[in-house]
Amino acid sequence: MTDRYQTFTTTPLGKTLVKNLGLPDPTPLPRWTEGSQVIDGPVVFGAIGETDAGKAVQALLRDIGASFSTAAEGVASSTIRPKAIVFDATGAVSTADLTSLQRFFSPVVRQLAPAGRVIVVGRTPELASSPEQQVAQRALEGFTRSLGKEVKRGATVNLVYVAPDAHEQLDSTLRFFLSPKSAYVDGQVARIGTGPLVSNDPARPLAGRTALVTGAARGIGASIADTLARDGATIIGVDVPQNADPLRKVISKIGGTELLLDVTAVDAAQRIAAHAQEQHGGLDIVVHNAGITRDRRLVNMRTDAWDAVLDVNLRAPERITKHLVESGALRDGGSIIGVSSMAGIAGNNGQTNYATSKAGVIGLVQALAPSLAERQIRINAVAPGFIETEMTAKIPFTIREVGRRINSLQQGGLPIDVAETIAWFADPASAGVTGNVVRVCGQSMLGA
Amino acid sequence: MTEPRKVAVVAGNRIPFARQDKTYRHASNSDMLTAALNGLVDRTGLGGQEVGEVVAGAVLKHARDWNMVREVVLGSKLAPTTPAYDIQQACGTGLEAAILVGNKIALGQIDAGIAGGVDTASDAPLSVNDHLRNVLLDLNRAKTYPDRLKVLARVRPKDVVPEIPRNAEPRTGKSMGDHAALTALEWGITREAQDELAYNSHMNLAKSYDRGFQNDLITPYLGLEKDQNLRPDTTLEKLAKLRTVYGNGETATMTAGNSTPLTDGASAVLLSTDEWAEQHGLRPLAYLTHSQTAAVDYVKGAEGLLMAPAYAVPRMLARAGLTLQDFDYYEIHEAFASQVLSTLKAWEDPIFCKERLGLDAPLGEIDRGKLNVNGSSLAAGHPFAATGGRIVAALAKQLDENGGGRGLISICAAGGQGVVAILEK
């Protein structure tokens, strides 16, 4: 699906019109490609005092070969155009420290390069050591969400809350938020807890792992399968028999196995577990991507439309997760990823069934995260906003155009943006990332 | 109440099955059923006699044939005092008719009866579309000329196009083949396995003709002496060359060779008590001992359209106290080779048997050498309602020829239904 408006804005006539009429001017977002660096430009680092988290951030920046300077080195007055600005705010112990946000960011933020990255690292407020610290840390969210709306030209602003003693878990998350892999993730909050330290090859973080992707034949599911395979995973692609042919095309390209079944079948979970164990000896990653819509206002909602959407989008992931965990088919240290939706957070006219199911996915993440942690199994969800797929291409023009523009990046996301976010959750190095629901929505105005 | 009586299958007869729009293209359902019935009457010497009841049906039926079976009886060699009624349970019609007749015999309500079925895919009932039908009905109700003219003015050019019966499930709009293709994919049924089953069907049916097995099961009709669809010279290579007709792209496996063609034909089976048979100089070939129907919810995709027999058989086995391996012959109607293979695979699958059938252990494998030993629908063709009669008669004869044994009949039907039965001797 091409965004014709965005293409038009790059033509001479388009540029003139956009400028003079004050029309949306979306910046094309670079995506990660084979051989890309995590960050291809200078990084400015700032902090409130010296902290473990700050040290971990600087160690990572050195590790990925980023040229970085600290604010103290007089960045503000210099001519560098930072590609990323990382600020360690874990040292904020009271609201007095919030002053540093303005002092640090005001001069440097105007220098931010196109498609730049702003990352603020904070302390998980609920785990703060004093009420004063909790207040200060919670305040960060208002700052990053507002700055996300202010920065232009495809730049993103995200907040990473890290638990005490979890600073060693920051790597995979910082890599994700710094890199073009998070192109369409904006205005989000990620929470990192403690977990075992996993060191793996960042180029193939999923090597030796087996990943199940439901609804893998088309759209976002196919992109997820591709992306996890790129990161080294062996894929089990699941789809309904109707999609056998497109599923075969996806799987034959990336290797792995196909499993044709309806996720709502009474024995779907057992079949998935048996297939995974017989063909691959077990599973490490489960992506509940299969989903359907049957949109109708509630007054006109038919029973079968309501039931079908809840069955596919919520009950199937719930049942399959339960069985895979209980049967042991999902190995310890595994990762479960649900696909929620912006509608599940903000609600949507005509989507009571869909939004119920997608909010339920968030419930599933929150309900299971604590108990699964005992087996070091993590569960998280992505909540896509407007993603350019066959499904959104069918939305009537005006509604589609509005859906695309009402976010900070003024454009729709791509399936790969959802897939990259899932790959970050799937990465064993994200051992401290569980119970998260991260939106892939370009910081949509809906439900923000 | 008295003990149920044993239900004997005494004789069967059918006309050879013809491919659609070939030899029987101008034959009506009534013509063909009459031919099959008269052949049975001739062979059993029942001319001019009355039997307890004739039960039969057709799947594709003209509106005028609302009392088809009784009309057929009146035009047949049976006594005109023989009662009759029509039934319809899609492809299960013929077997269901035999079960109904058998039940009345078992209960002592009748001593003998004839079960049958007929279908034509050539002489299809076209009907006017709903719009024109409403116009014509209103025209009939109009009392005055101006009113009639007003009604007639509603006729539109599109009304000229008649409605042709669709070979599709009303609730999904998908053809039976498309449904079967989905099930085949779900069960991972290969093209090779389907072609092999089709090949065996043709070889087994051809052998049965060669050894004269079909001689007293068939009455030639309109110059046709053997099933028109039978290809005794087919090979696995030839079957492998056919292009696929259901499913999409490289995952498609179903061809015209491993799916049944549309066919015309009729069959009839005589059932009775032992005493009645003896009194009429006939002898039981086998006994109809158990039967079962089941249906699945294929509409929401919870189960494949043609998988109902997979549910019906274990229920029947449980009631009969038998295992799937306690049979000498298996007659699994070959709607599609993939249907037979999916059913067999489901019975072997521990997950299916546990989660869907609620069984502790899978039903297990069957000896493939006992499957459709005299050919089945892939070779003979499948005039929907006539298939049950063909199978009951052939299996009863096979059991008799074998000097005893037990045979399983399994027939899948449109609407997600299955009709199954056991014959024993």
TrEMBL record, chain A:
Query: Which residues belong to any copy of the Ketoreductase domain?
Result: 209-385
Q: Which domain of life is it from?
A: Bacteria
Q: Its Gene Ontology molecular function terms?
A: oxidoreductase activity, acting on the CH-OH group of donors, NAD or NADP as acceptor
Record SUPFAM superfamilies: NAD(P)-binding Rossmann-fold domains (SSF51735)
**Sorted alphabetically, which PANTHER family does this protein's record hold?**
3-OXOACYL-[ACYL-CARRIER-PROTEIN] REDUCTASE [NADH] (PTHR42760:SF78), SHORT-CHAIN DEHYDROGENASES/REDUCTASES FAMILY MEMBER (PTHR42760)
Provide the family line: Belongs to the short-chain dehydrogenases/reductases (SDR) family.
What is the name listed in the Swiss-Prot or TrEMBL entry for this protein?
Answer: 3-oxoacyl-ACP reductase
Automatic annotation (TrEMBL), chain B:
Q: What is any one of the record's Gene Ontology cellular component terms?
A: cytosol
UniProt signal peptide: none
**One Pfam annotation, family name?**
Thiolase_N
Keywords, sorted A to Z: Acyltransferase, Transferase
EC number annotated for this UniProt entry: 2.3.1.9
Entry annotated with the keyword Isomerase:
no
Report what the protein is called.
Answer: Acetyl-CoA C-acetyltransferase
Taxonomic lineage is: Bacteria, Bacillati, Actinomycetota, Actinomycetes, Propionibacteriales
